[in-house]
Task: inverse folding
């Protein structure tokens, strides 16, 4: 799991919260105001949901465990889900994480906490899977399955 390179004070006065794996920073920035016309269902229903990486998420989803409806694969736990405006590409140990964390400081930037590994691991699953994994909160996926 990626290590955080900076800390950020939360709106409630709290500081970095490390999840159970003690590595991934939960994004503590206060949520932006809802855009006009935005629907509540575009906001994750479980703000305390733990983060998992895409591979783990996929395994859990395929196992179909009901309790996993609480797990989301991204660090953004609020806001409207969108396709990305930019993708950071770099060799291993090339400093991509540092670049991401610096960009993430900007209030207009939203970024995923976990790396989806679409291009190097899950490319054969196609663009539909890629967008499905990243932009739809898991709980909605389960609801769509009738759970
Ligand atoms: N500005 C700057 N200058 C020099 N070195 C830097 C800089 N930013 C990040 N780093 C170092 O880059 C390493 C992390 O790179 P990545 O984020 O690409 O890592 S990873 O491959 O995704 O795990 C990691 O190296 P190691 O500490 O040796 O692991 C970082 O310390």
Result:
């Amino acid at each position: 799991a990626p290590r955080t390179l900076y800390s950020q004070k939360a709106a409630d006065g709290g500081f970095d919260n490390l999840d159970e794996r003690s590595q991934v920073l939960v994004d503590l920035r206060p949520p932006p105001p809802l855009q006009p016309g935005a629907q509540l269902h575009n906001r994750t229903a479980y703000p305390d949901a733990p983060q998992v990486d895409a591979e783990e998420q996929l395994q859990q989803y395929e196992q179909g465990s009901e309790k996993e409806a609480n797990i989301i694969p991204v660090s953004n736990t609020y806001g409207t889900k969108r396709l990305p405006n930019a993708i950071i590409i770099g060799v291993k140990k090339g400093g991509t994480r540092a670049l991401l964390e610096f960009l993430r400081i900007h209030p207009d930037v939203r970024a995923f906490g976990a790396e989806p590994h679409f291009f190097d691991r899950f490319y054969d699953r196609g663009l539909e899977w890629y967008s499905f994994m990243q932009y739809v909160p898991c709980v909605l996926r389960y609801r769509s399955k009738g759970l």
Q: What stands out?
A: Residues 1-31, 39-54, 66-81, 132-147 have pLDDT under 50 and may be disordered.
